[in-house]
Design goal:
Distance between the termini: 17 Å
Number of domains: 1
Order of helices and strands: HHHHHHHH
Structural class: mainly alpha
Radius of gyration: 21 Å
Shape: elongated
Largest sheet: none
Strand content: under 5%
């Protein structure tokens, strides 16, 4: 299955970050450790953890916007009267909301960025609004709780300056692999949804 350019972009970013983390770890573990890394492991771990979560959130926002734009385009091509959809979806029809034109509904990037975060539960709810059931993916469900824990850790680092002393460079490397699987589960659902329509 061909993956989107967006997935490939974030996969490349995370793969590059993985190499940086490996180099940082090697500098700490070598016989004569690099002082800047050895004395500031917590700082580097926190920085890398924040980057991992930032890449995830950016990926989620980008793919949600891309997918919703494709759905909006298909709706526009279908030339469905606005009033037909409005009447079907609204119990309290307001005269001022009626339009004699084709239906157009779109999410802006800001709309989606306000709905989506790295938090899996917010992500699940946001993707429901664009027609994607993330919980139908076993891989997504398998990783969502641990992803949520990592994102909460990131939030506590950012908002409360928490320590990351319980996380090692090796933990970060494993987390990147898990984030990639998690993102790939979303990618696969989006691909399947696009093919079905």
């Amino acid at each position: 299955m061909e993956h989107s350019a967006l997935y490939k972009k974030y996969e490349a970013l995370l793969t590059t970050l993985k190499e940086i983390i490996k180099q940082s770890q090697a500098r700490v573990l070598k016989e004569d450790p690099d002082d800047i890394f050895a004395e500031n492991v917590n700082f580097f771990v926190k920085s890398y953890l924040i980057s991992i979560c930032t890449y995830l959130e950016a990926y989620l926002q980008d793919v949600a916007f891309d997918y919703s734009s494709k759905v909006a385009s298909r709706l526009k091509q279908a030339k469905i009267p606005h009033n037909f959809l409005y009447g079907m979806l609204t119990k309290d029809v307001k005269e001022k909301e009626l339009k004699f034109s084709d239906a157009t509904f779109t999410y802006t990037k800001k709309d989606l960025s306000d709905l989506i975060s790295g938090n899996p539960h917010k992500t699940i709810n946001a993707f429901r609004l664009i027609g994607i059931d993330l919980e139908s993916s076993e891989k997504f469900v398998e990783h969502k709780n641990l992803i949520g824990t990592i994102v909460n850790k990131r939030n506590n680092i950012i908002h409360h300056n928490d320590e990351a002393s319980d996380i090692s460079f090796s933990d970060l490397l494993a987390q990147i692999d898990m984030f990639l699987e998690y993102m790939l589960s979303i990618e696969n659902l989006l691909n399947a949804s696009e093919e079905a329509i």
